[in-house]
Amino acid sequence: MSNATDSLIEAEEMIRSTFSKIDDQERSLQICRWLLSFNGIEKEFKVKCYSTNVKYGDICFCVDRPGRGDCESDRVSTWFFRIRSNCQIFRRIALNAPYFKLQSDTNNAYILSTDSKKLDLEILKKQIFESYELKLNELSLVSKVSKTNNALQQNSDQSLDNTYLPTKEDFESAYRTLTRFGETVFVDAVLDQIEINAKKESRTLKNNWRLITESSIEIWSKKRWK
Fold this sequence. Notes:
Blueprint: H1 8-18, H2 22-36, E1 46-51, E2 59-64, E3 79-84, E4 87-90, E5 101-102, E6 109-112, H3 113-116, H4 121-138, H5 147-160, H6 168-178, H7 187-200, H8 209-220
Antiparallel strand pairs: 1-2, 2-3, 3-4, 4-6, 5-6
């Protein structure tokens, strides 16, 4: 039986226990919070999160209709998106981008981790939403979360949290301030400069921003940091 839940607290615990890398955790948590927020709008069904016991350690999202037990069987057939440490898997999504690959012997598509981490989160959300709509269509269901409402929901969520997480552009700006092209510098010095720049722009950084940003720098830069 799956451990499917629509509780955000339980879902977040699943993600943290499944993924050890901070950047994998953070992006997965953002996706999870976004998808489970649909439950405040959808009325005929719920979106649930569950983890699998396969060697890959997947975090999956499924559609659960009342009284059907859709997400409680050993093989959940209503899943529409899976987060895996080495790729993102979508259910029957249209192959409309060069980074999509077709999973052999299935109608599923996936994006390798190296490619998905380069994608802006909002682009990835659009692909997830497409897979979500395709699954609902297969189940003869209609979502009340339109693309427009979805965007409004994101804006509403963002307005509740005014803290800021540095971006790749913030990192590059701080690096340029400290060095000339090709030079190396201690990563802590770059983080300190990011904090200085944020204060100048009156931005309040998230409590764990240094830990998350340090992990992100490893992805953003090919340089070997001291």
